């Protein structure tokens, strides 16, 4: 409670409200947020930040002096992290990638926890990009759709695929083949909306 009696949290403290059906708990140095679409874990910098989940509220309190610019940036960043974790376990995140095959017909398939790209620029051996655990991938025509509850894992999986099809020995102005991110990881639209 604040010292001025207004009910606002004191300087260096932020309260994040979780949506209904989402629970948060602190497991050693990990913040765990659980909801209908899964569970997301994130390590907490306990030397600089105190995280207290209680009911539908997560309270963030700075351990370092709150007057510092970096301390305010830390608490604001963590406020956004918790909001993203809650959105991920409530609706999930989705990233869309486009398969561009201008010169050679490319075959893209999802196998286990990887994306296999065959005949990229006419290469004899397939290229493989890893998909992080908790991320699902599916091929939909000329699009590759990645989805999951953790925004960072979805985004990193998309980056792994894009990096795998990076052209090195050809002029990129002519050879534009590859798999490119067209929509970065965003919350999925609610079903039936």
How many structural domains in the coordinates? 2
Strand content: 35-45%
What's the mean pLDDT score? 87
Distance between the termini: 39 Å
Helix content: 10-25%
Cα radius of gyration in angstroms: 21 Å
Strand line-up in the sheet with most strands: 11-12-7-13
User: What is the tally of helical segments?
Assistant: 2
- The strand count comes to 13
Shape field: elongated
Low-confidence stretches: none
Order of helices and strands: EEEEEEHEEEEEEHE
Characteristics:
single chain, 13 strands, 4-stranded antiparallel β-sheet, 2 domains, 19% helix, Outer Surface Protein A, domain 3, 2 helices, 193 residues, alpha+beta
Mind explaining what this structure looks like?
It is built from two helices and 13 strands, in the order ββββββαββββββαβ. By secondary structure, it is of the alpha+beta class. It folds into two domains: 13-90, Ribosomal protein L6 (Outer Surface Protein A, domain 3); 93-186, Outer Surface Protein A, domain 3. A hairpin with a 2-residue loop joins β3 (30-35) and β4 (38-43).
SSE blueprint and pairings:
Blueprint: E1 13-17, E2 23-27, E3 30-35, E4 38-43, E5 49-54, E6 57-62, H1 69-90, E7 93-100, E8 107-111, E9 114-118, E10 127-130, E11 136-140, E12 143-148, H2 151-164, E13 178-187
Antiparallel strand pairs: 1-6, 2-3, 3-4, 5-6, 7-12, 7-13, 8-9, 9-10, 11-12
């Amino acid at each position: 409670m604040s010292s001025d009696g207004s009910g606002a949290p004191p300087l260096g403290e932020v309260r994040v409200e979780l949506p209904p059906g989402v629970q948060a708990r602190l497991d050693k140095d990990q913040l765990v947020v659980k909801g209908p679409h899964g569970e997301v874990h994130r390590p907490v910098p306990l030397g600089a930040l105190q995280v207290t989940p209680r009911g539908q509220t997560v309270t963030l309190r700075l351990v370092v002096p709150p007057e510092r610019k970096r301390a305010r940036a830390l608490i604001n960043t963590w406020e956004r992290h918790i909001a993203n974790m809650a959105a991920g376990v409530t609706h999930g995140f989705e990233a869309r990638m486009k398969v561009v095959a201008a010169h050679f017909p490319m075959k893209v398939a999802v196998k286990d926890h990887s994306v296999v790209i065959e005949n990229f620029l006419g290469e004899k051996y397939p290229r493989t990009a890893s998909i992080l655990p908790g991320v699902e991938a599916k091929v939909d025509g000329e699009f590759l759709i990645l989805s999951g509850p953790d925004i960072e894992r979805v985004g990193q999986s998309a980056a792994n695929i894009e990096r795998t099809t990076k052209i090195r020995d050809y002029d990129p102005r002519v050879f534009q083949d590859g798999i490119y991110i067209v929509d970065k990881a965003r919350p999925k639209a609610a079903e039936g909306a």
